[in-house]
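Service request form, structural biology core

Requester: graduate student, group of Dr. S.
Request type: structure prediction, single chain
Budget code: on file
Notes: please return the result as structure tokens.

Sequence provided:
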Amino acid sequence: MASIHERILTILDEQKLSIAAFERAIGVGRNSISMALRKKSAIDHIVLKKINDKFPMYSFGWIISGQNEGNHDSALELTRDVMLLFEKWKSKI
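Core staff response, request fulfilled:
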């Protein structure tokens, strides 16, 4: 089972964000995520909530514990499909 640090790295990879861009996106201090990932240290629950608020396609349960890890890929795929449909619809307006 992947660690919380590996799941955060998965989010960075899937969202195509650098650690610095990710930190800015969720509104945390510079190097706070970077240091936590590097040292494999604890990540505050407020930071985890900010991640979930900014990236709701990643469930809080999945971010914290990998809960429903098997459903993660299908949920992400569905989210991407909906976003593509929305973009197509938006471009026709």
